[in-house]
Specification:
A hairpin with a 6-residue loop joins strand 12 and strand 13. The protein starts with a strand and ends in a 10-residue tail after the last helix. About 25% of the residues lie in helices and about 25% in strands. The chain is elongated. Strands 5-2-1-6-7-9-10 form a 7-stranded mixed β-sheet. It is α/β, with parallel strands linked by helices. It contains 8 helices and 16 strands.
């Protein structure tokens, strides 16, 4: 089939690789424009953009797919279908209807749960036991189209948004050849979504701060759901004043005390009580201006003694 691929982050790269390996003709790759990155703020192409270039594929990076010129270019590609994975732009009806067979999206949840921008993070943060990847026909509504294929994945107790996203990207990529084969034969079964939708709103900086008064299970899920980006954070006392520390990995632990109190030398921190364990142990952290490291490594250079209160 003659396809356009539309995607931006690392999560989308396995899908593009799978489509290439399956022998489809990738007429164009669409990705978000290069953005400033790093200390030098150098313009850097997205992971999908960079991968597409290594494969010799034409890449388009319009600031807006709503612009008339971008729509006309897309319509001129004479596509059989478009495959969309975390592209990051809303597609108008004129775009959705341009390919002969339609536009299809790989979404990282079991719809209608977690429609929207951050389904993987929200599923972990909510303490969901499972999630999934689904290929859906795109409509003008936000993740409202019918489902063609699904794969359910468990969310493990030690999953972060990153580790879960890596598994979902691989499993989701493998769905594309099956879905496209069925679409091409006219044999795809499209099932309308059923149930009350929930929405995975974009993560805001304000919600990244850890609230130690919440139950331990919620604090642990919050930390893992925001790892590695943007990273849940707290402030620790020091002689020079509060120091911001990101918590990148944690686990539930035994113990109790005032919320935010450090209970031992393993950096176990008391949380609000909920009958399921009143503390979390911080495993991997990142102090402001430093690289990520184990909690024990950080404590050797930045001691946080039992009894200290994190806030």
């Amino acid at each position: 089939m003659r396809l356009a691929f539309m995607g931006t982050p690392e999560f989308a790269v396995p899908s593009l690789a799978e489509l290439i390996a399956a022998g489809h003709e990738i007429a164009a790759v669409y990705s978000q424009p290069p953005r400033p990155k790093g200390r030098g703020q150098k313009l850097t192409p997205s992971p999908v953009h960079a991968f597409a270039e290594t494969m010799g594929l034409p890449v388009f990076t319009p600031e807006s797919m709503k612009a008339a010129e971008a729509i006309e270019t897309f319509q001129s590609l004479d596509l059989d279908a478009a495959c969309v994975v975390a592209y990051g732009q809303i597609l108008k009806r004129e775009v959705l209807e341009a390919p002969r067979l339609g536009c299809f999206n790989l979404h990282g949840s079991l719809l209608p749960r977690w429609r929207g921008a951050a389904p993987i993070q929200r599923a972990v943060m909510a303490g969901d036991a499972q999630t999934g990847v689904q290929i859906m026909r795109m409509s003008e509504g936000l993740d409202e189209g019918p489902i063609l294929l699904s794969e359910v994945l468990p969310i493990r107790a030690d999953d972060t948004a990153a580790s879960l996203g890596d598994r979902m990207a691989t499993v989701g990529a493998a769905l594309w050849p099956r879905a496209l084969a069925a679409i091409e034969r006219g044999a795809a079964t499209e099932t309308e979504q059923a149930g009350e939708p929930t929405y995975a709103k974009k993560i805001t900086p304000a919600e990244a701060r850890i609230d130690w008064t919440r139950p331990a299970a919620q604090v642990d899920a919050h930390i893992r759901g925001l790892s590695p980006f943007p990273g849940a954070w707290f402030e620790a006392p020091s002689p020079e004043g509060p120091v911001r520390v990101k918590a990148l990995m944690s686990a539930l632990a035994d113990g109790s005390g005032p919320p935010g109190a450090v209970l031992d030398e393993a950096l176990t921190v008391a949380c609000g009580q909920d009958g399921e364990g009143g503390a979390v142990r911080l495993i991997r952290v990142q102090r402001a201006g430093k690289g990520a490291q184990s909690a024990q490594e950080m404590l050797r250079g930045f001691p946080i003694t039992p009894g200290a209160i994190l806030f």
